[in-house]
Amino acid sequence: MSDLSPIPTPQAEGLTQAEKAAIVVRFLLSQGAELDLAQLPDGLQARLTQQMGGMRYIDRRTLASVMTEFAHELEDIGLSFPTGLAEAISALDGKISPLTAARLRQEAGVRQTGDPWQRIAELPIDDLADIARRESVEIAAVVISKLPVDRAAALLGHLDGPHARKITLAVGRTTAITPDAVERIGLSLASQLDEQPPRAFSVAADARLGAILNQTNAKIRRDVLAGLEEADQDFAQGVARNVFTFAHIPARVQPRDIAAVTRAVDQSVLLTALAAATDGDEAATADFLLSNLSRRMADTLREEISEGDPPTAEEGERAMAELAVAIQALADAGEIKLTATPPPDAA
Hints:
Layout: H1 10-13, H2 17-30, H3 42-53, H4 60-76, H5 84-91, H6 98-108, H7 116-121, H8 125-134, H9 137-146, H10 149-157, H11 161-171, H12 179-195, H13 205-214, H14 218-231, H15 233-241, H16 249-252, H17 258-263, H18 267-276, H19 280-291, H20 295-307, H21 313-332
């Protein structure tokens, strides 16, 4: 930088703006700067590339003049604003309501900015599965190929076997697809997301109802699920997959996580739940919990249960529900991992 003269020289005055831009970009790249030129419109990217390709060399005084002019322009900028309505809406994301943002986009005919595939990869698995079912297997194969490996595997797990096999076979036909085609597919899918109205609830209906039923007593849970089964079998199955109760613990919690589970609730809650679990699946859950604790802790709990008064049915059910909710909270926080196998009986 010691070669830069603070006084503009005549050599720079005869340069076009495109030539000056090419000089600035070339100099910054030579100094190791990270420039995100992909954010420029395609036309400007092409013009810049062509301009750089048509230039050979410049002398040191001209370089100093151009860079000094560039530095002065930067110093004169007091505040910059987003370019266009699309960038303004993105800049205000989270500051204005989703409904207002959606209306502004629709009225102005603009789309959300950014990498469309990044937006698609961040969708919930259920939404990705809807795309895979709605689009052709070739498009679904491209989606699978663009997702991170773990997300792609989770997506295949949400599809029925025959459809998943068709998509995996179509992956083999994506070898010759061009980057332009992949980008167009991403933009097309992202535009469909933009056209969807904002959702009042961020959590799916079956998950919301499942979370509510987790904290109800078994009779209400059975009655609600039975009624849903008669009215809408698909929705009922979705709700059942989101129901997690005390009786489901052996099937969905790893034995190594039991110690973390017992630390997540007050010991009085754990004692009440174990003391109330005397029959059927609930008794099997109590045995599962105790058998995966240290022998000393398990013996202490058994002794306290035998010496204490038995809880009422209502107290026991409330404690079991609290334990199940605590386990679900641990899973949501990523501290433990529940198995993906849905329980056969949500009661």
